[in-house]
Amino acid sequence: MASRKIFGHRDGFSQDSLMALNDYTGNNPLFTGGVLLYLLNKAQAPLSRDLLSWFRIRENRTWPISIASVFFGLSILKQASDWLSWKARNNGVTDQYDWTREVVVITGASSGIGARVAEMLCAKGCKVAGLDIQQPLKTPPANMKFYVADVTSRESLKKAHVQIQKDLGAVTVLCNNAGIGNGAPILEHTDNLINKVMAINCVSHYYTVQEFMPGMVERNHGHIITIASMASLVSPVGLSSYGMSKAAAMAFHESLTMEVKYVHNTPKIRTSIIHPLWTKTPLIEGHMNEKNKGPKVMHVDTVAEAIANVILSGESHTVMLPRSVTIGAALRGMPDWFKLGVHSATAAEVSRFDTEGAMAASGPRLHM
Which regions span the lipid bilayer (predicted)? Predict the structure, then answer.
């Protein structure tokens, strides 16, 4: 559900721009089929002077048609695969969302990605409850209520939930967005650092889901979104606890997806996961090496827009950001020479950041 803008995107022209262009051309049966029909029609018509240089003799007319036929077939297969994926992700059932009545809870909503997702949803008329241990950096929109809450405390979440129900109504969407990042070699990790990263980035998902999901189960209606990271798939050097916590969050999401269907028999509850790469959040901006600005990072609105689109779709999704890093999902099955080469490349990228001591109290400060 990432943006498919080709030109004029906030992150500039990139590999994702080419992939978006391919969505409208090579992966689109209407386009590939149109090209095929055009060539078939031309093959039956008398040769014109303009085409003589292309189709020198009649026997050579078949190769463009053969190539176009292959692309048309592949585009049909791609559409069929996408449909089967939709059916699998959404348990083969549809559901209706009334965004004037739905209540969306976003953790880590005081700044960064969480705050922007909240603003985008509010602009669409949604009722949003923002949770964070810190006060918001700016005044929330009129249709958003902010609650100071600690996602690592069951008592704090329960207190916030009671107030949300009074103020906004029953929670139908939960976006587990709160997270912290750190930068330290494994031998320099302290107990406090390890426990804090795991508590906020992973264990808190148990607490929020156990607090807000029962109401969704009762109504067989809801959506739980996990904000993971590309570090779930490729854990970078110096970010071991962050990568470990995000891999755990991904495992939690996968188990939750199966339990919704097989334990609770609530096929209309949606589960989505987002894997962003480097994103320009406060922590990243504060720890970029002054001598070398490091790898290219995505605009916070690029990630926030993708999350908001997933929520508003009312459907389950798996999103890699940028789309060009989707190969990370297949990395575990690759030969060691390739896999370790990718890990070495990420190590070089991370080394260009000044990550020593990079730690945030709340919110999605570091996404990779």
Answer: none
